[in-house]
Specification:
Elements lengths: L8 H5 L1 H23 L4 H20 L6 H6 L1
């Protein structure tokens, strides 16, 4: 089980939080495009999937995604 950070409304609306939100979305999208657009061996694919998984966990822990299902679709 993942322990989420308890952030205040002020923390969620600060510019750093918004930048992290956008940055993690962009990183996930970039990793997905790399994984989909190139012919990678199993090891490289696993590494990329691991990166995506960690980014999704970070988003979930920071409250950017509200549930593991949201994170999976994020």
């Amino acid at each position: 089980m993942t322990d989420r950070l308890q952030l205040t409304q002020e923390e969620r609306f600060c510019s750093l939080y918004r930048k992290l939100d956008q940055h993690t979305k962009d990183q996930i999208e970039r990793q997905r495009k790399t994984n989909d657009g190139e012919h990678l061996d199993e090891r490289k694919t696993a590494v990329i999937r691991g990166r995506i998984s960690e980014l999704k966990k970070l988003r979930l822990n920071l409250g950017m995604d509200t549930s593991p299902e949201d994170a999976a679709n994020g």
